[in-house]
Amino acid sequence: MNKDTLRTEMLTIRMALTENQRKELSDNAVSLIQNHPLYQSATHIGIYHPIKNELDVLNLRNDSEKHFYLPKVFGHHMHYLKFEETLEESELGIFEPRSNKSYDKVLELIIVPALAVDHSFHRVGYGKGYFDRYLSMNPNIKTLGVVMSFQVVEKITHSPLDVTLHDIIVIPYQCEEST
User: Fold this and answer.
1) Which residues in the chain show pLDDT less than 70?
2) CATH topology (fold) of 3-171
C-alpha cells in the first residue's frame, strides 16, 4: 500500500473515533508514556498539540518535574519552543507557541505523532517531512512514537530521508467491524 493510501485509510479510521474513545485512549497513552524508560530518563521533552483526532498527550504537562516544548513551523523547517499557555493557530491549523525562541539544544526526547508505524519503527506522517527534516538535523534527540493498535502495519516503504523512531508505544484499540 502506498503512503498516500495508507494516510487516507488511517485518518478515516481515526476520525471515526468518538470524543469519549479518544479521551480514554489518550489517558492510556499518557500513562504508558510516563512509564516508558525514555520518558523517565528525560527532563526536556517535545510533545505535540493534537490535530485530526490524534491522541492527546497534553496531560503530560501535569508532570512538574519535566519541561515541555511544542514544535513551531518556520517555512519548511520546524523548531521546538517552550510550551506556553497562550498558543496561536498556524496556517497549517496547528496550535503553536507565540514565541520564536528555539529550545532545540535542550531537548532529550520527542513524543512523535504518526498516522501509521511498522514493527521496524518507520513512521508515516502527513507527508510534509517536518519531523524527518528536524530529526535528521538533531540526531541525538530520542524519539517515541505513540499510536493506536490499528495504526501499526506490517511494513512501510521508506526512503533514506525518513527517520526511524527509537521506540513506539501502541495503545490497544479494537476497530468496530462494519456490518
Assistant:
1) 175-179
2) Rossmann fold (3.40.50)
